[in-house]
Amino acid sequence: MLQFFRHSLPRCRYAGPRIALRPPRVSDQAAWMAVRDRSKAFLEPWEPAWPRDALTPGAYRRRLHRVEQEWRSGVGYGFFIVDDGTDDLLGGITLANVRRGVVESANVGYWIAEQHARQGYMSEAIQVLLDFAFCKLNLHRVEAACLVHNEASRNLLLKSGFQLEGRARKYLCIAGRWQDHDTFGILRTDDRPAVPVIES
User: Fold this and answer.
1) pLDDT band per the 50, 70, 90 thresholds, residue 9
2) What CATH number is attached to the domain comprising 43?
3) Which of 43, 91, 129, 159 makes the best surface tag, with the fewest CB within 10 Å?
């Protein structure tokens, strides 16, 4: 059972062979700002437009507060992706828009620092997150979307067991423009790569 402490996120960690997923902490502020700053040009084309104060302590506090609210209400679960040995910040991954009842589904979104891209970290992080979604939250389905020209993300999702399901016109406002996205889905019963996960 996830345990909450006053004014904080639950103390939990889900580790694969090389990476671990854990909720962000107040103490991660400097690392988050530094990693995002170094990867700004790499990340901006694939994300909603960054506000002018995107890399400030205030922006981090707002993000952390939103993540805490979503965890508590059960509608979203934001994680940092960290090196399992050093706890260095590699990126982030979120299970968002959790719907219950007849749907039992959620959406996944992710980012990784430029220096850690294309090294297999995100493939592992997605499998650890899917284990959390299907085994911990008992969801039926996880959905994802990527820009139609984002070949790296498309290949990552297909490799991770997602199936291409369609194209959504002007689906998300990315880099300041409404852009078409390809949509993907994976069911709890679908085949996917096996990654051992240790919860602590």
Assistant:
1) confident
2) 3.40.630.30
3) 159
